[in-house]
Design goal:
The structure holds two protein chains of two kinds.
Chain A: E1 6-15, E2 18-28, E3 33-37, H1 44-51, E4 59-64, E5 67-68, H2 74-77, E6 80-83, H3 94-104, H4 111-121, H5 126-129, H6 139-151, E7 157-161, H7 169-186, E8 189-193, H8 197-203, E9 206-211, E10 214-217, E11 222-225, E12 229-230, E13 236-239, E14 245-248, E15 257-260, E16 264-267, E17 278-290, E18 297-303, E19 306-312, H9 314-319, E20 327-333, E21 337-339
Parallel strand pairs in A: 3-8, 3-9, 6-7, 7-8
Antiparallel strand pairs in A: 1-2, 1-4, 4-5, 9-10, 11-15, 12-13, 13-14, 15-21, 16-20, 17-18, 17-20, 18-19
Helix pairs in contact in A: 3-4, 3-6, 4-6, 6-7
Chain B: H1 2-16, H2 20-53, H3 59-69, H4 74-85, H5 100-124, H6 129-136, H7 141-151, H8 153-168, H9 172-178, H10 188-198, H11 201-228
Chain lengths: 340, 229
Amino acid sequence: MESPLYAIRGLTHVYRGKPVLSIDRLDLPRGGIVGVIGPNGSGKSTFLRLAGFVERPTAGEVLFDGKPASPFSPEVRNRVTLLPQEPFLMKRTVLNNVAYGLRIRKASDHLAERVDKALSYVGLDGKDFAQRPSYALSGGEAQRVALAARLVLKPEVLLMDEPTASIDALSAQLIKDAVLKARRDWGTTLIVASHDWQWLYGICDTVFHLLKGRFLGTGRENILFGPWERVENGQWGKRLADGQQLLVPKPPEALAAAVIENVTIMPQAEPVSGAAGQVTLSGLITRLALEKASGSIVVSVLVANLPFTATLTEHQVRNHELYPGRMVAIRYNLNSVKWV
Amino acid sequence: MDFLLQGFFKAIELLTTGDPETFSAVYATLVVSAYSLAVTLALGLPLGFCLGYFDFSIKKQVRVVVDTLLSLPTVFIGLLVYAFFTNRGPLGEWGLLFTLSGIAVGLTILALPVVIALSATAVESMDRQLRVALISLGANRQQLVLSTLWEARHGIIAAGLTAYGRVMTEVGIAMMVGGNIKWQTRTITTAIALETNKGEFAMGIALGLVLLMIAFGVNVSVSFLRKRY
């Protein structure tokens, strides 16, 4: 079996005395596309900075290619690159920004040509953009130039933090195309944190869910946040905006987060029998996304204002005639609810 | 007001005819300001970078001390340097009293807090994402420092200009440590003070014009470099 590219062991990262990331053990494969999803503040950016060797973890170690690595390590310095959420361009022309990484590697042969090619990867015309100062770029152009500055290095690992957030649809599509081309052409391992679930499920071999600084698994889990209160019959839960009741077992604390792994989806036209210990809610299908790795279809259902996801086979989706805009019933077992 | 006008025309004459006394003071000023600025930048930029870039436990206290030193009175610096360099002083054997080198030492003490404080501010005001961007593009520690300084270049140039302005126009240190010796340690500012006391306005105005021209030349050069880089 091939050794993992990343092997993270006993990692803890603390920021101003507060633990923000804790990973007991995590292996990431070589050449794969790994997605990281999670709410704001869940530790996604911290994880990417640590995996991008921009910061050193407070405790634990990150093995890269079997060797312990840290910021400035020769093992990773020219192999791993991170595209942060807010692209930072230096006070230089686009050409000099994109060429920076090559120059510090003393790889200045055919510089203009290579910069031109990298810019074309992200849909920018080198003749038009190369001599522009960085301050004369729009947000989407700046993000694409920042990506070109990474792609020109032909990195072994490219980590991206919300690469398509707060940019226009065209720029987002060009960025998505460019990173997939990098994967195809050079076998670059991609690690992407994004809110764009549809895209992540579409391209990733593995998707991890990160919550409160901990990896929860495959990203298919439904995570529900408190506050929880006693509702009818002494049960715990919360009343949703449309009047339905979301029931959970007794929470450890009022603001605990509940994780529900298995949610069943049924067409609402069918009679729904609520067996003991099972909760059934009514919701609207908002989207279907193909999960590339398994060929399954991820169905997103909005119950009042809460999003749920379930993974179904193509046969089940067709059989139940599930499509966006259709009202369906979702069901989960109270015993399957876990607290984090 | 006539004496001012006459002084102005006399100044033009002194400068265009290459008056040796005037040019001796100009030379002394350029030498001491160049030496002191070179040493100040060599010491002040690394210290300013460290103060602006790194977080350490007594950073605020160090910052307060540096900011306080910005308003150090020049005559006090002159007094201290004089006390150290006089024959009875701890550094008397170096023989720096009443020399251009002695003046340069005093001016360096004057300009150092200016360069440290302003370059620290310039580095501190850089976007925190710069570090992430540089490391993720493969910069090593040395390249990280140099690239950060380059990104903060406009603020650092402003620090250098401010320091140069202070050392060029300083009179207290030059007078006390240099002794205002004709042909030796007489700088433009000490000469202006002397000539004004003697009622020789022409010489004073001529030297004042030279100071202005040097300042103008430096600023034009810096402005040109800023546009280019």
